[in-house]
């Protein structure tokens, strides 16, 4: 079965159909395959256009009818090429949107895991106990500062005396 018929008939795996749709990886792979196929067709059409243009030049004024036929074929190929360009743009846009959606889904999933981990870490913590602990720490820092101030003051033997 050709790639085109697989694409239009949905020739994917049976497991993706049973889940309600393809996975993002499967869809991205198919979009890339389609892009590759259309790119090859573009190359083919570009060579055909060049051949028809060369044929039209070759016939020139000698055989106007054959030259006109070659130019008509060239125009037809150019129309197909323009259609493929539009299709490729659409597919690229869809692929990029799917990649971004997949990335956003993964980011959201990981943020959920992180939230669960934070919840687990915080489940043994009581806000009142934390507040009491912070007050104790502040009190001890004040005591340490007073001790440090007392030690660092000059012992003024005779500097300070009362008249």
Give a structural overview:
The structure is a single chain. It is rod-shaped and about 115 Å long. It has a single domain, classed as Helix Hairpins. It is 82% helix and 0% strand. The protein is built from 5 helices and no strands. The protein has 163 residues and is mainly alpha-helical.
List its salient traits.
rod-shaped; mainly alpha; 163 residues; 0% strand; single chain; Helix Hairpins
Number of DSSP helices? 5
Which CATH class is shown?
Mainly Alpha
Computed CA radius of gyration, to the nearest angstrom: 38 Å
Helix content: over 70%
Q: Terminal Cα separation, in Å? A: 113 Å
Can you identify the CATH superfamily?
ESAT-6-like
Strand-residue proportion:
under 5%
Helices and strands, in order, run as: HHHHH
Instruction: Profile the largest sheet.
Output: none
Q: Based on Cα principal axes, name the global outline.
A: rod-shaped
- Classify the secondary structure makeup into a structural class: mainly alpha
Mean pLDDT level = 85
Give the total of beta strands.
0
Lay out the secondary structure.
Blueprint: H1 3-9, H2 14-18, H3 24-59, H4 64-122, H5 127-152
Helix pairs in contact: 3-4
């Amino acid at each position: 079965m050709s790639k085109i018929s697989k694409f239009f008939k949905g020739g994917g795996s049976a497991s993706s159909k049973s889940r309600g749709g393809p996975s993002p990886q499967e869809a991205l792979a198919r979009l890339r395959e389609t892009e590759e196929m259309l790119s090859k067709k573009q190359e083919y059409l570009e060579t055909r256009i060049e051949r028809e243009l060369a044929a039209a030049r070759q016939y020139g004024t000698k055989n106007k009818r054959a030259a006109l036929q070659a130019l008509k074929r060239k125009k037809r190929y150019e129309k197909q090429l323009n259609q493929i360009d539009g299709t490729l743009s659409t597919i690229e846009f869809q692929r990029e949107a799917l990649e971004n959606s997949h990335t956003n889904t993964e980011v959201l999933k990981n943020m959920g895991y992180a939230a669960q981990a934070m919840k687990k870490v915080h489940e043994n913590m009581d806000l009142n106990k934390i507040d009491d602990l912070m007050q104790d720490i502040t009190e001890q820092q004040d005591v340490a500062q007073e001790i440090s101030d007392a030690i660092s003051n000059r012992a003024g033997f005779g500097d300070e005396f009362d008249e």
